[in-house]
Amino acid sequence: MTREHIERVDRNDGDEQLVIRMGREELIIRQRYQAASILNDFLIGLWFLLGSIAFFWHTWQDTGIWLFVLGSAQLLVRPMIRLAHQVHLRSMPPERWDF
């Protein structure tokens, strides 16, 4: 993807959105930190579910353990996303804050 296919747009309400153009289609991400948090939570659930299923078969138990480790490590990403969001909000001028 080239740079001209990705742009940041400031909306009138002060919320920035990310627009990714793919041919005739475009993907608009309005609240990127919330979207990142939801994606992270989904992946955590997926790793733990697959790890649990892997424990049904003895030959897949090592894979299950690694999926649990991956899910546990990804739990550390959750507070980092929240911290990045807070740092981003603090760098914005007060007149752009939405209460």
Characterize the structure shown.
- The protein folds into 2 domains: 1-30, no CATH class; 32-92.
- A 3-stranded antiparallel beta sheet has the order 1-2-3, with no helix packed on it.
- β2 and β3 form a beta hairpin.
- It has helices at residues 32-54, 61-75, 77-91, and strands spanning 6-10, 16-22, 25-29.
- The chain contains 3 helices and 3 strands, in the order βββααα.
- By secondary structure, it is an alpha+beta fold.
Q: What are the SSEs and their pairings?
A:
Layout: E1 6-10, E2 16-22, E3 25-29, H1 32-54, H2 61-75, H3 77-91
Antiparallel strand pairs: 1-2, 2-3
Helix pairs in contact: 1-2, 1-3
Mean pLDDT: 78
The largest beta-sheet arranges its strands as 1-2-3
From the spread of the alpha carbons, the general shape counts as elongated
Biggest sheet character: 3 strands, antiparallel
The tally of strands reads: 3
Give the number of domains. Answer: 2
Percent strand equals 15-25%
Q: Terminal Cα separation, in Å?
A: 35 Å
**Gyration radius, to the nearest Å?**
19 Å
Number of helical elements: 3
The helix/strand order is EEEHHH
Protein name: YrhK family protein
Domain YrhK: 31-86
Transmembrane segments: 38-57
Keywords: Membrane, Transmembrane, Transmembrane helix
